[in-house]
Amino acid sequence: MLTVTAKFTVKEENINKFLKLSEPLIAETRKEAGCIRYELFQDIQNSQIITFIEEWKDAEALKAHENSSHFKSIVPKLSELQLEEIQVNMYKKL
Known about the structure:
alpha+beta; four-stranded antiparallel β-sheet; 3 helices; 32% strand; globular
């Protein structure tokens, strides 16, 4: 199993747009084979920090997600709304 965090720092004026764009990404991703968990969180102390926390069966499932049409069409739009480059971390369970 892989856990992924994808942290976006979003321009304040774009937060609502970011959240709205994320809705179909979340809905479609949760239908994917190999997706165990796919959730969106907003930092309590800094509302501009919005993080996807994901769990995948394996690297192949994650790769399929990254190649999906919804990922390829929505993630670039989300990236346009941020202040800083996205921070992605991948973890394996010990």
